[in-house]
Every structure is written in structure tokens, then in C-alpha cells.
Amino acid sequence: MLGNGVRTGRCVPYYHGASKTCEVSGWCPVEDGASVSQFLGKMAPNFTILIKNSIHYPKFQFSKGNIEMRKDGYLKHCLFDEASHLYCPIFRLGFIVERAGENFTELARTGGVIGVIINWDCDLDLPASNCNPRYSFRRLDPKHTPASSGYNFRFAKYYKINGSTTRTLIKAYGIRIDVIVHGQAGKFSLIPTIINLATALTSIGVGSFLCDWILLTFMNKNKVYSHKKFDKMVDTPDRGAGPGPRASEPPQQDSTLTDPRGLAQL
Asked: What is the model's pTM?
């Protein structure tokens, strides 16, 4: 049978009966998950988390943060609200779990991983006040996985009692918050616009048409270009032909072979 420790190589009597078993050096008693302490499911939803974030787009020399720069102690008495307090990134733990579509009481028992996603999509042709963060929340760990669902970890505290090494093993369940930041910024520029437009026109065959039209219409030597590009073909009538239609000559036939009635001559 399997043991919860390292085998010493000694064969010792079993704890009941006359059989023997391999000795195992391990911690007693063995963890069975029966001892469960009272969780903080009632208090923890009101815990608050400050998420401080800033972005920088070096190409456009643009930087911005998600905290409003005020000196009146604004952050001491505000909570996040998407409509009225967008730049107060202080979130209640219960608010984050609720926005992720989870039940806090159930999540506190098994633990879990919640992702706070901050998205910065900015049009830098507009004022900086229009570049604002957008928050979304979702659960990241698979909660329906039978093996090791939720989020938990173990740690121990070691000490000695009467010369014997003793430990207290703690299995902790918790809610881990992962902050994910992504975004993009853009600004109008004339040169990339011209390059992209020319590439698009060339791909559909309009570029050569526009070049020919510009050269034939606006250039001073458009006649020279036209002469080099186009070949003129003139349809001239045959010499000696009258104004009326020409009569075609009948084909010559060998009179020795056939007569006008189509019968063979012997």
C-alpha cells in the first residue's frame, strides 16, 4: 500500500494483526481535509483593492494613468463607478466577483482566479480626455474541472515541542486577482495614408489608369506621351477602286474536268 512519506527500508509490525508493513517517515496525522476553519465570506466582499495603472505610447509621446490627479483627498472617500468615478480605481472585492458573474460565497469556499482586464483604445487625433480606460472582469480558472478546481495553496509553520519537530499545515483558499492591460493608439499621418491608398489602387488595377490620365491631361508633353503609348492604324482603300462596291472575280475552274452542269468530261 502507498504511504504519505519517505520509506525507510525497515519492515515493522502493522498497527493491527500479525502482518507487517514498510516503515514510512512522514507527518502525523495525515491530511484528510476534515478540519475547515471559518472563512471570511461575510467580511471579504467589502475589502477594497487599489489597481494603479499607467500607459505610454512612445511613438506619439503620449502618457496617461487611471488615477485622477487631485489634491483634495479624492481617493480616500471614493469607490469605482463606470459613470461617475471612472478615475477612482478602488474596487470592492465583492464588486469584482459580481461583475465576473460569480457567487462570492461559493468562490470563497473553493477559491478562484479573477481577471481584471483594462483596455486602452485611443484616437490621439481627439483630445486626451477622450482616451479613457475600459474595465471588464471574468474568471480565468476552469471551475468545473474535477481535479484541483478553484485556487488554493499549502504552507506550514514549523516549531519544536519537547525536542520533537512539529508543524502546523495550513491549506489556504483564496481569490487571486490578475490584472491584464492591453490597448492600441492611432493618429492620422499623411505619408502612410498615401502609401496605403496607392497600394490599394495598384492592387485593383486603378493605378495605371490614373497615371495615364494624369500624363495625358496635365503634362505639357502629353502628345509625345500619347504618340509613344498608342499606335495609330489607318485603313486605306485599294488603288483604282471606284466609289461603288467592288465585284469579286469568280474563281477559275479547270474546264477540262467539269462542265457548267457539273458533269465530268471524258
From this structure: 0.65
